[in-house]
Recover the amino acids of this structure.
């Protein structure tokens, strides 16, 4: 992993909507080739933070500095089952989707699209309609779309949501490979940190509009999360696993296990 240059620096970033403070003094930086989990429950400000980094949402105060191009995989894209758009067409739009009119055929473009389809393991369904693909297959295609211009920073908003266990593992492995082999900085938001733990270099944990950032083992701690949430949080390590417990506050804590206000995560 190349850690010589910072790809993203967020400094004292605050974002407010009418009557509500969404983010308050969020600061962190990511180096080339790092994988960072952006963790928080629904409404914690994950999407707002990503949109502000992209310049789609104005900040109230603070700064965002980007060193290189950015690729983005949004949280929700609904594909019409009848749309005659193949997986390779979606990837190709990453090259010329900002141009007016229909894209002209090009051997060079086809080679780039084919190379990116191979890179994400999507060759087998490259010519299938995008609406006919499974959730995991669609995520591969969307990542290829975001990566085809070879950005230095890849932002993904809840890419693991509603995927089965195997698809989640495949997508996490794919993101990790882009980071380790190509030096891409990956910032991926998730409600559940568990699938990302084996690949995360650092974490940005959002709650109450504020963030705790750093290495996972220094952030997922009783004193840090208690300060972040504003009430007592127990972080207990048992047999190489971590239990994060907040009695009576399960709806606020990411990775809540059914029937118990507990979430479990492994710290590598």
């Amino acid at each position: 992993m190349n850690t010589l240059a910072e790809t993203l620096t967020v400094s004292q970033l605050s974002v407010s909507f009418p009557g509500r403070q969404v983010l308050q003094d969020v600061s962190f930086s990511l180096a080339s080739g790092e994988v960072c989990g952006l963790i928080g429950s629904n409404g914690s400000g994950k999407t707002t933070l990503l949109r502000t980094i992209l310049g789609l949402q104005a900040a109230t105060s603070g700064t965002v500095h980007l060193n290189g191009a950015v690729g983005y995989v949004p949280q929700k894209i609904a594909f019409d089952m009848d749309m005659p758009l193949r997986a390779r067409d979606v990837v190709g739009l990453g090259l010329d989707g900002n141009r007016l009119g229909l894209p002209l055929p090009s051997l060079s473009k086809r080679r780039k699209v084919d190379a990116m389809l191979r890179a994400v393991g999507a060759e087998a369904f490259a010519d299938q309609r995008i609406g006919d693909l499974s959730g995991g297959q669609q995520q591969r295609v969307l990542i290829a779309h975001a990566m085809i211009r070879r950005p230095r920073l890849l932002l993904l908003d809840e890419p693991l949501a509603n995927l089965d266990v195997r698809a989640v593992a495949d997508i996490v492995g794919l993101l990790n490979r882009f980071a380790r082999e190509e030096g891409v900085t990956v910032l991926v938001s998730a409600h559940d940190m568990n699938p990302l733990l084996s690949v995360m270099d650092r974490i940005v944990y959002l709650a109450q509009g504020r963030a705790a950032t750093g290495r996972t083992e220094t952030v997922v701690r009783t004193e840090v999360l208690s300060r972040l949430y504003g009430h007592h949080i127990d972080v207990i390590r048992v047999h190489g696993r971590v239990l994060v417990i907040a009695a009576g506050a399960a709806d606020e804590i990411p990775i809540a296990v059914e029937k118990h206000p507990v979430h479990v995560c492994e710290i590598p």
Notes: Residues 255-268 have pLDDT under 50 and may be disordered. The longest strand covers residues 6-17. Helices lie at 46-54, 87-96, 107-119, 135-147, 165-182, 216-219, 222-229. The domain at 6-69+191-266 is CATH 3.40.50.300 (Rossmann fold).
